[in-house]
Amino acid sequence: MLSVRALRAHLLASGIAGVVATSRETSLRSYRLFAARDPRALMGIDPEDAWGVRDLIALMAEKCGVSADPRCSSGHDVIDPERTLAALDAFAGRLAVAARGGASVLIGTGHPHRLLGFYAALADGLSASGCTVLTPAQGRCVDITTRFGLRTYNLDYVRGVALLREPGPRRPGCATGAHSHSPLPVRTALAGVAEAGGALPDLVVGDHGWVCGAGQLGFEAIGLADTNDPALFVGEAEGVVSVAVPLDDAVRADYYLPLTRYVLNRACLSQ
């Protein structure tokens, strides 16, 4: 079993926590968009409170460990590894509850190039524990407005993990799936469950719009979030998201393997 001390060291060495690649400029831009209620930053959350940029900076300092100084406007963001570890424990705790109850679980990611392996291992462990890992609405079209205009994607599943793919032949470098912040994929998946008359998920696991979109609809949702993803942390603060784990969500995929083992062990899931 990976010790907490060893995992903390790995978080810092890999850039998953500590000084991360996400820039302060990028995060502040996201905070401004969120404060203006831009759908790209809301990711499906409909905040009850008015969140200004200073409010968001204070929240992200509390939840992630970024600088609380509004005058800090450049450089790299910092994530406190202790906050990451505490949130991973809470994340694993929710998985353990789901496993003990044989829950229905929906898992989806907007970061398939980096996080697919992490989520797929969770899907395997939950399935082995007796949970039902849902794969509804496979192949259904999802139309998403991007900065390049309206684009159509297909909802797909890899090892129980939902993701978006561009229709047509897969291009080199895009085989894994498309990056997305949109809540439309999870809404499509949930609509597919309802149309099929199946059991709705007891828990939704993922990131970006998968967590925010599901949480806003009243489903228990847990996930991972970077310092430029304030929506998940606002959702957590307002009780819409159960757990948001602060980490850099775009490092090398293999760097998440120690986190995978740690979470599986803490949740008492098969590895």
From TrEMBL:
Pfam families: Phosphatase. This is Phosphatase.
